[in-house]
Amino acid sequence: MTVIPLNTASNFQPLPTKVLYRLFVSISFAMILLAFTFNTPWEIWDGFWLITRSPANLLTDYMALANPGATLINAAVMTLQALGVVWLCRAKITGPVISALFLIIGFSFFGKNFYNSMPIVLGALGYAKITHNPLERSLLAALFGTALGPLVSELTFNQGLSLPVGLVVGISAGFIAGFILPPLGHHVINFTKGFSLYNVGFTCGFVGTIFISIMRSFGMEIEAVTIISTEYTVAFSTILLGFFGIMGLYGFVINRFTLAGLSRIYKHTGQLSTDFIDIGGIGATIINMGLLGIFSTLFILLLGGDLSGPVIGGIMTIVGFGSFGKHLLNIAPIMIGTTLMSYITEHLTQDPSILIAILFSTTLAPIAGRYGTVVGILAGAIHLTLVVNVGFLHGGVNLYNNGFAGGLVAGMMVPILDAIHAHRAARFNPQSAEVDPAEEIETLD
């Protein structure tokens, strides 16, 4: 695939920031209204506080732990909280911010809540204040860094500490984790060269591993959790397909009833940092997001999988990154590779952890975008073998387990692929060997 310079979308009319704020507020209130179609107010109230007090380690499906109504309220609260952070930072709602907001919606179905996310957000923003940088520079680390929310919940509620002590220890650990994420994330991207989209997830894997190692050294045990719902597939398949259909239609309308800009998005590799709004315009970007949502939902249903909380989180993450690196052409090979690997190994494809790996393996979409379909399938296959084994390192307190595994896959594959590429280029065109292809793409991005 070719690389499109960022200034090619200058002819597209952007949506005002106020409109984007209103869209996410509308999504939040829609989730609140939808919550009361599942459960009574008292059930939602009790479930919401159960979610807030839960350890939240992987895999804790909030719909199974509490109920769908409480889960939707939690997602609405988290979305409004994230919007508040964006407003506080005086940041524009760009492609990366949209991806972070959708990711927060998705992970509010399993693992994230208001309590365990706030210390991390405050830590990341505190780093910006102490280093005298604009808050906006730490915004993405603050939003994506909430992946370590279970660390806060685990120390607060699940280690036998008294509540006052647990609150102090949990909040302090979350603040420290959030504080160190911005500088670490800046350097980690050099390892993956932007070929794993979940850069902060990779960083959180290291941070989570350090914290869990310290906790284990003091004799603390972190229990593996598997709480999964299976009874809401029909309801949420209808909700999600309807929502993504409306999203695609909305994008088509604001794109003046054309698909203009979509081809520009499809021609891009997706390598970080790639804001599809700058490349194809907001209308084409929303169309891309809607198509990704429909595709990923149908993909899971065709595999015979259930739409549990974590699976819904994976779908919403794909949709969010439809503004920041993912499109149908670069995610399909990765998902196919992961699925094929599940069939030829001892894993059950319909198992929730495998379905989640299939969805989140799309962090490696830029590899397929840069190196082609066959390499993308191989990357997805390798990803599955790693992701089922690395969770022990961080004890499940890093919700972006696939981001951690994906970073390792990218860090291993990309140097090899670049070396092969450079060797072939030197063989047929000696002058081209002087330029590192990965560096060339990064410069153009």
Please give the structural blueprint.
Elements: H1 17-35, H2 41-53, H3 62-65, H4 68-88, H5 95-107, H6 114-130, H7 139-144, H8 149-157, H9 163-192, H10 199-217, H11 233-254, H12 262-266, H13 276-280, H14 282-302, H15 309-320, H16 328-344, H17 352-360, H18 365-371, H19 373-394, H20 401-428, H21 437-444
Explain what the structure shows:
The chain is mostly helical and 445 residues long. It contains 21 helices and no strands. Helix 6 (114-130) crosses helix 9 and helix 17 crosses helix 19 (373-394). The longest helix has 30 residues, at 163-192. The chain is globular. The two termini are 14 Å apart. The model is unreliable at 1-10 and 433-445 (pLDDT under 50).
* Structure classification: mainly alpha
Uncertain runs = 1-10, 433-445
How many DSSP E strands?
0
**Approximate shape:** globular
Order of helices and strands: HHHHHHHHHHHHHHHHHHHHH
Count of helix runs: 21
Rg result = 21 Å
Overall pLDDT confidence = 91
Which percent bin holds the helix content?
55-70%
Largest sheet: none
Estimated share of beta-strand residues: under 5%
Distance between the termini: 14 Å
